[in-house]
């Protein structure tokens, strides 16, 4: 999933002419590369900015590579404040800050214009990040590949090349692991690749290899909160919850604002069956380090109620979160789904209707849920088929098939739902939850309970993933049903 198997043509954007000039100037166009003398150190990214601005940028890039996005964005913003002409920093700041898409794109364009006044290599890197933030995966991959060739001494660029290669076709976990292994072998002291490799190996079923990599990550980066948080999470996946919690606490000691580790403690408590304690942990943590976009951690607390199967309490917490988050439309959709599968269904249609003013993908999904809630099953199936046809890739098409199966479940057609789920594949969307519901609708309670136990047996719980929490609540309800 993280490498490529054959050369790919660049997806040309309006920056194509910039790219062509850079490839020539940086010596990576066809026939332009020349072997460097053996004594010459591999080229690295040389920044036009200097002093504190350059230091802030490097700190931000380190945090970005180590998945500490909030602190990375703060550092990039500081770099721009110190040097307003620092185009590369401006692009990364805009990409991580999010906000209004038009404003973000305007900032990215300004950053590209400023980066054009720096070196060709710096402009090349700026363009690569700009394409990445604009979700132009193929173009981003080609640009990062060119940058990695032009600056072979810069591990972050080789790493980004591996990560953006997920845009290429025919990728899987094995290819991804091989791509990351190449980066690790070339840069054995570059900590972030150890982190990503650990998760990749875990997903491939190589738990021992994953633990070896994650321990090396902590060894290489002992004073970064993410290394301890990642180690804790893999321990959690392994069911070693008592060992995980101290590492979550160590991450918080290193940075009290590190929200992921605070959530990790609550997640471990939920997995130990201590949901009341988890809610108390989240409430106490909010006083120490509140999440600015979600006061009171209402979403996380709602997730704990979803795991319990308590629709009323979950809906109450999600309602409190509505006015405190930029993702109100997404929350409306979650509330619709919660009411459909855990509640009485009376408010599902109104919440789905409220979500329809979002982006096209969200609006299409909301329309499907609204039709399903209103028992317009033919309309819901039609919306699902449109989503399948218009999906930009197979993964999203598989997710749309799961939604189509969900409509069949709502109709009471468990056999039809199972057929559609088989087309979607076992790992698509919320497939396990829908499969359990389909088995229940078919009257096959043995299969419904077996799937439910599998859902609840997974240690990969993330309270930020409300769909995953809903699946656990549905599984609890199926297991509580009369035989």
Give a brief description.
The protein is mostly helical and about 475 residues long. It has helices at about 15-25, 50-65, 70-80, 85-95, 100-115, 120-135, 135-150, 155-165, 175-185, 190-205, 205-220, 225-235, 240-255, 260-270, 275-290, 300-310, 310-320, 330-340, 350-355, 360-375, 375-390, 395-410, 415-425, 430-440, 445-455, 465-480.
What does the model show?
With 483 residues, the chain is mainly alpha-helical. Helices cover 70% and strands 0% of the residues. The protein is built from 26 helices and no strands. Helix 12 packs antiparallel against helix 13, helix 15 runs antiparallel to helix 16 and helix 20 runs antiparallel to helix 21. The longest helix is centred in the last third of the chain and has 18 residues. The N terminus is likely disordered.
Mean pLDDT: 87
User: pLDDT under 50 segments (min length 5)?
Assistant: 1-34
Characterize the overall form. Answer: globular
Residue share in β-strands: under 5%
Oligomer: single chain
Largest sheet: none
DSSP strand tally? 0
Radius of gyration: 24 Å
Q: Structural class from helices and strands?
A: mainly alpha
From N to C, what is the helix and strand string? Answer: HHHHHHHHHHHHHHHHHHHHHHHHHH
**Amount of helix:** over 70%
Number of helices: 26
